[in-house]
C-alpha cells in the first residue's frame, strides 16, 4: 500500500485539511510547536516534530535483551535476512538499524540518515555522534517492507555480561523510537529469563507507551509447560515493577522462527498466539491514522503540564539566594506537581516522571525560564477540547477506506488465512491465475526422491489420487514446522489450487519441507524447475488456448 505523502499545501484553517495527517501537522505547527519552543520542551522531553513524522509508514520497534531472538524474529517475518544482519548466541547486533523498503539494496549510515528530510529520523541528530555511528538504515526490496518499516536494536545487556558504557543515552534513544513507532515488540527468552538492570531502565524508558507495547515470550518450546507457567509468572511480576499497567500487557507466547518446535506439547497455543500477533501486525496500516492522532494528544498533554511546571518554577524564583531556592524547589517537586494538578485539574498521568524531571532541572537556570503566557495555553486547550474532535469525521472516513485494504502483505504474512493451516477457512485458496510457469526443458528437481515420497503418499490412503487438506495437514504437522511455514509450503505445493495434493504436489510439499528443515529459505514463487511436470504449461497469446504439455 502506497504511503500517503502529504505536501505542505499552505493550509490556513482546519476546514481546509483533507487528511488526518494534514490536520495533525497543521494543529501541531499552529498550536503546539510555539508552546514547545517557548517553554524549551525539547530540552526536557523530546525534539520537536517534523512533517516526516506525520507521513511515514507504520514502524515496529523490536527490543529485548541480548540473544532473545530479535534479528531472527525479523528474518522470520520478512522471510529474508536483511543485508549485514548477524544472528548468533553472542551479542551480535550493535547498531540501531532501520529496515526499510527500496527497489535497490543499500545501507545509509546514521550521519547521512539524519540529513534526509524524507525520513523520520532527522531529530535523532540530537543524540550525538557516538549514537549516529551506531545507527543505520538498510534498504532492499521486500513486500512486507512496502507497508511497514522495522527497527532492529542492540540487545539490552543482561546482568551476567559485563556492563560496558555505550557512549550514548540508550534508554533515551529507545524512548525516542517508542514515541515514533506504531508497535513496540519486546522479546524475552523463556529459556533464560534473567532480567538485568539495564533491562529495567530500558523498560522504564518505555513508560507512557504501554499501549503500543507487546511482549513476545520467545523460545517457549524449549521449556516444558510447567516451567513455562513459572517463567510467565516471573515475567509478569518483573514487568509489573517497572510498568504501571502490567495486567493489560499482551504477551504472545511461542517460538518465533521457522525451525521446528522442540516439542509438540504446546503447539496449538503457540500457533494461535502467532496468528494473533501476525493479525495485529497486518492491521498496523489500518490503525495508523488513529495512532498518530493519539500520539499527538499525548504529546499535547505533556507539553501542557510542562508549561505549567516551568512557569511555576520561574515565578517562584526570588531575586537573591537563588541557588538555595532552586535546590528547595527541586526537592519539593512532587508537592509542586500535585499542587499544579489540583489547581489546573490536570490528571497525574499527563505529568512527566518526577525523578527524571528533578535530574534534568539541576542543569537549568530557572531565571531563564518563561513565565505563563495565557494565550498560548488557551490555544493548546482549544486543540485538546475542540480541534481534535473536528478531525474525527475525517478519521472515520480514512478508517473505512483502510478497512478495504488488505493490510500488510508478503513474507510470512503472505499466506495468512490460506490453505488448510488456519481455522475457519480450511480449503479455500484461489489459484494463482496465469502464474503457471512457461514450459521449460529443465528436469523436475523433485524427481529423484519421488519414489520415496510416493510411498508415504500412498500410505496416507489418498482418494482418487489426491490427498485431502486435512490428511495432508496431519502429516505435514508431524514435521513440527510452525504452521506459518507449512502454510507457505502448502501454497507453493497446491499448484492447481484445488485444496488437495496429488502425488506430484505431495512430493513437492515433502521436498520443500526437507529444504526448510535443512535450514534453507522458501522461494516466494515456485521456480520453474520445481513446478511438477503435469502442471507445466505453455504460455500462448490467447489465454483460453493454453495447451497442456505432455510430461517430459
Ligand atoms: N525461537 C527461537 N528458539 C530457539 N533459539 C532461537 C530462537 N530464535 C533465535 N534463536 C537463537 O538465539 C540466538 C540469538 O538470536 P539473534 O541473534 O536473533 O538474537 P538477538 O536478540 O538479535 O541478539 P543480539 O541482541 O545479540 O542482537 C541465535 O543463536 C538464534 O539461533
Ligand atoms: Ca540481533
Automatic annotation (TrEMBL):
Annotated EH domain residues: 449-537
UniProt cross-references to Pfam families, sorted A to Z: DUF5600, Dynamin_N, EH, EHD_N
Keywords linked to the UniProt accession: ATP-binding, Calcium, Cell membrane, Endosome, GTP-binding, Membrane, Metal-binding, Nucleotide-binding, Phosphoprotein
Domain Dynamin-type G residue range list: 54-285
CDD domains noted in UniProt: EH (cd00052), EHD (cd09913)
Gene Ontology biological process terms from the UniProt entry: endocytosis; endosomal transport
Superkingdom of this protein's organism: Eukaryota
Subcellular location: Cell membrane; Endosome membrane
Domain EF-hand: 481-516
GO molecular function: ATP binding; calcium ion binding; GTP binding
Membrane disposition: Peripheral membrane protein
Name this polypeptide is given: Uncharacterized protein
Amino acid at each position: 500500500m502506497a504511503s500517503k505523502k502529504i505536501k505542505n499545501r499552505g493550509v490556513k484553517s482546519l476546514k481546509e485539511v483533507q487528511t488526518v495527517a494534514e490536520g495533525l501537522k497543521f494543529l501541531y505547527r499552529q498550536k503546539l510547536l510555539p508552546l514547545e519552543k517557548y517553554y524549551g520542551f525539547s530540552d526536557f522531553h523530546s525534539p520537536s516534530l517534523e512533517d516526516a513524522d506525520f507521513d511515514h509508514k507504520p514502524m515496529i520497534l523490536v527490543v529485548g535483551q541480548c540473544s532473545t531472538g530479535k534479528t531472527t524474529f525479523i528474518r522470520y517475518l520478512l522471510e529474508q535476512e536483511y543485508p549485514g544482519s548477524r544472528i548468533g548466541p553472542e551479542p551480535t547486533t550493535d547498531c540501531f538499524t532501520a529496515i526499510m523498503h527500496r527497489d535497490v539494496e543499500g545501507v545509509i549510515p546514521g550521519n547521512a540518515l539524519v540529513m534526509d528530510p524524507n525520513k523520520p529520523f532527522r531529530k535523532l541528530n540530537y543524540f550525538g555522534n557516538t549514537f549516529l555511528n551506531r545507527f543505520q538504515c538498510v534498504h532492499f526490496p521486500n513486500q512486507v517492507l512496502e507497508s511497514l518499516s522495522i527497527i532492529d536494536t542492540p540487545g539490552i545487556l543482561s546482568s551476567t555480561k559485563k556492563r560496558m558504557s555505550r557512549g550514548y543515552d540508550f534508554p533515551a534513544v529507545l524512548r525516542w523510537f517508542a514515541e515514533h513507532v506504531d508497535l513496540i515488540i519486546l522479546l524475552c527468552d523463556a529459556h533464560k529469563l534473567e532480567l538485568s538492570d539495564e533491562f529495567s531502565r530500558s523498560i522504564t524508558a518505555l513508560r507512557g507507551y504501554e499501549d503500543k507495547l507487546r511482549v513476545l515470550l520467545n523460545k517457549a518450546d524449549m521449556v516444558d509447560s510447567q516451567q513455562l507457567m513459572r517463567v510467565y509468572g516471573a515475567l509478569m511480576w518483573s514487568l509489573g515493577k517497572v510498568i504501571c499497567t502490567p495486567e493489560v500487557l499482551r504477551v504472545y507466547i511461542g517460538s518465533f522462527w521457522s525451525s521446528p518446535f522442540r516439542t509438540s506439547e504446546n503447539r496449538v497455543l503457540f500457533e494461535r498466539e502467532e496468528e494473533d500477533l501476525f493479525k495485529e501486525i497486518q492491521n498496523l496500516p489500518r490503525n495508523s491514522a488513529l495512532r498518530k492522532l493519539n500520539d499527538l494528544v499525548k504529546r499535547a498533554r505533556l507539553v501542557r503540564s510542562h508549561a505549567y511546571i516551568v512557569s511555576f518554577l520561574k515565578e517562584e524564583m526570588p531575586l537573591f539566594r537563588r541557588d538555595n531556592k532552586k535546590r528547595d524547589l527541586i526537592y519539593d517537586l512532587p508537592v509542586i506537581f500535585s499542587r499544579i494538578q489540583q489547581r489546573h485539574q490536570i490528571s497525574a498521568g499527563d505529568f512527566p516522571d518526577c525523578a527524571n524531571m528533578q535530574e534534568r532541572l539541576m542543569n537549568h537556570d530557572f531565571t531563564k525560564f518563561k513565565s505563563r503566557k495565557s494565550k498560548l495555553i488557551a490555544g493548546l486547550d482549544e486543540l485538546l477540547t475542540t480541534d481534535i474532535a473536528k478531525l474525527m469525521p475525517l478519521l472515520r472516513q480514512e478508517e473505512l477506506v483502510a478497512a478495504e485494504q488488505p493490510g500488510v502483505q508478503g513474507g510470512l504474512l503472505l499466506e495468512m488465512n490460506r490453505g488448510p493451516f488456519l481455522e475457519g477457512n480450511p480449503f479455500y485458496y484461489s489459484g494463482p491465475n496465469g502464474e503457471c510457469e512457461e514450459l521449460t526443458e529443465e528436469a523436475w528437481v523433485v524427481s529423484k526422491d519421488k519414489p520415496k515420497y510416493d510411498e508415504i503418499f500412498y500410505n496416507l490412503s489418498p482418494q482418487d489420487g489426491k490427498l485431502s487438506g486435512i490428511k495432508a495437514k496431519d502429516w505435514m504437522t508431524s514435521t513440527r514446522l510452525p504452521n506459518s511455514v507449512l502454510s507457505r509450503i502448502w501454497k507453493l505445493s497446491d499448484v492447481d489450487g484445488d485444496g488437495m495434493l496429488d502425488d506430484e504436489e505431495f512430493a513437492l510439499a515433502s521436498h520443500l519441507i526437507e529444504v526448510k528443515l535443512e535450514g534453507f529459505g522458501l522461494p516466494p514463487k515456485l521456480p520453474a524447475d520445481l513446478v511438477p511436470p503435469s502442471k507445466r504449461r505453455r504460455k500462448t497469446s490467447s489465454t483460453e488456448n493454453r495447451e497442456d504439455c505432455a510430461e517430459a
